[in-house]
Write a structure and sequence with these properties.
The protein has 188 residues and is α/β, with parallel strands linked by helices. The protein has six helices and six strands, in the order ααβαββαβαβαβ. Helix 3 links the parallel strand 1 and strand 2. The radius of gyration is 19 Å and the shape is globular. The termini are far apart.
């Protein structure tokens, strides 16, 4: 036990420093809340579907709920049911086993609905591509409004993708799907 304690004392603290507060986000928060209320008349509700990912994107999306990003403070929340969702956030290449479930979640959403594909796998299948077990990217199964590249994309890029989707307007029921907005990869 003593050698372990001595090693701890010798090594010291090895974690990185906490990130600095982003004041521009705090000042933009009120504007973002107003924009969401103007567009939707209420809070934005997101249903997230893992269509076969490695969970890297899910970890980054989960970070949006921490105090640093404060997603709920912006008037954005997650729902367990697609029936209550305005936006479908999809991660991973769509596996053959998840194709029907993903379509069912999309169909259960009330119109108008938005779809954001997260990560390189959500964009085009990523390292998994399209093969015997996967359909490829989300756009092979559903109409996609915004694509957030990265493997995995940082939480700030995911947040930017969500905001781009709601600012890009709501897709009309039965309207032809336009080319999805592709965000530029953000450096870490």
């Amino acid at each position: 036990m003593i050698p372990i304690l001595l090693k701890i004392l010798k090594t010291g603290i090895v974690t990185e420093a906490a990130p600095a507060a982003r004041e521009e986000w705090r000042t933009r928060a009120i504007a973002i809340q107003r924009e969401i209320l103007r567009l939707l008349g209420r809070a934005l509700v997101i249903r997230m579907v893992d269509a076969g990912s490695c969970n890297g994107c899910e970890l980054e999306i989960q970070a949006l709920g921490n105090p640093y990003y404060n997603l709920e403070g912006l008037g954005i929340r997650f729902a367990a049911s697609p029936r209550h969702a305005d936006l479908l956030l999809v991660t991973g290449p769509v596996s053959k086993h998840m194709e029907m479930a993903l379509r069912a979640a999309y169909e259960a959403m009330p119109a108008p609905k938005l779809v954001v594909a997260i990560g390189d796998c959500g964009r085009d299948g990523g390292i998994f591509g399209a093969g015997y077990a996967t359909c490829g990217g989300v756009s092979q199964v559903l109409p996609v409004d915004v694509v957030v590249p990265g493997c995995p994309p940082p939480p700030s890029a995911v947040l930017q993708g969500i905001l781009t989707a709601i600012q890009g307007g709501r897709s009309a029921p039965g309207a032809a799907a336009a080319e999805p907005t592709r965000l530029e990869p953000s450096p870490r």
